[in-house]
Specification:
The protein has helices at about 10-25, 25-35, 35-50, 65-90, 105-110, 115-120, 135-140, 175-180, 185-190, 200-210, 225-235, 245-250, 280-295, and strands spanning about 55-60, 65, 95-100, 125-130, 145-150, 155-170, 195, 220, 240, 255, 265-275. The protein is an alpha/beta fold. The protein has 2 domains: about 10-90, Arc Repressor Mutant, subunit A, CATH 1.10.10.10; about 95-295, D-Maltodextrin-Binding Protein, domain 2 (3-Layer(aba) Sandwich), CATH 3.40.190. Strands 3, 4, 5, 6, 7, 8, 9, 10 and 11 form a 9-stranded mixed sheet that branches. A two-stranded antiparallel ribbon has the order 1-2. Helix 1 packs across helix 2, helix 1 (about 10-25) packs across helix 3 (about 35-50) and helix 1 (about 10-25) packs across helix 4 (about 65-90). This is LysR family transcriptional regulator. Pfam families: HTH_1 (PF00126), LysR_substrate (PF03466).
Amino acid sequence: MNQGFTTLPPLNALKVFEAVTRHLNFRLAAEELGVTQGAVAQQIRGLESSLGLKLFDRLPRTLALTGAGAGYAVSVRQAFELIDEATRALRPEPNHLTLSVTPTFASRWMLPRLPAFTAAWPDIDLRVLASERLVQFHHEGVDLAVRYGRPPFGAGLDATLLFSQNVMAVVSPALLAELGDPLVRDHCMRYALLHDGHHLWPAFLSFIFPDATMQHQHHLRFNQTALALEAAISGQGIALTSPEFVQNDLASGRLVSAFNQQMTVDAGWYLVSPRRPREQTTVLAVREWLMAQVK
């Protein structure tokens, strides 16, 4: 006769434990769960006491899972994913899809195409989440992501190349007329180089001027390509970008190519999704639409 789950710890304690295993920080887990840091610490102490095991080592600035804690974390996470999948099967939301993209991809590639997406898929409630980090798909409700880099992006994830990274330099036509052709080395030194998070200027200068060592003096640094491009449009210098992010600016004349050459980088923009998507039909539809936009 089944006596029920007599050894099961309180589910709330397990939920807190799962959050802490991802952040390895009581404060960040508390912020996610909407409770106090003290409440999180109390739940973990209570769970460790009931199990008779130490799950975390308390380090000066962070936490570390013990061997027992690491194994338990994998099983608890799988259990919550099963519960999550079972609950969604009872009340599916086939027309909701959350797409995680980087801020630059969102503003420079996705936003101009959203009217076409809405026209093609009026029944899909698309939620665009702009974030630099690769999200936790199941726990953050994300169905599909676009990320820059090289696969693999993580266990249990599929990655499909959206477009390869070719790098071009762009400048405002007014600044180009004022400072002259940057392909002339002395003219190039007059321009400010607008950096982004990819740090490609040293390689690009070596690519353009292979026989010269460039000790460039003028730099402006941004953490996102989109910000560097806005600075270029306003005439502050030369920015590096994927051609896909400046199609409208080149067509309208807000930006022009600073050099004729484009540099190929061993990385690209990839569509990333779990191998077992929650809303398979909707994910496939959006994936195919994104691929068709590139082609």
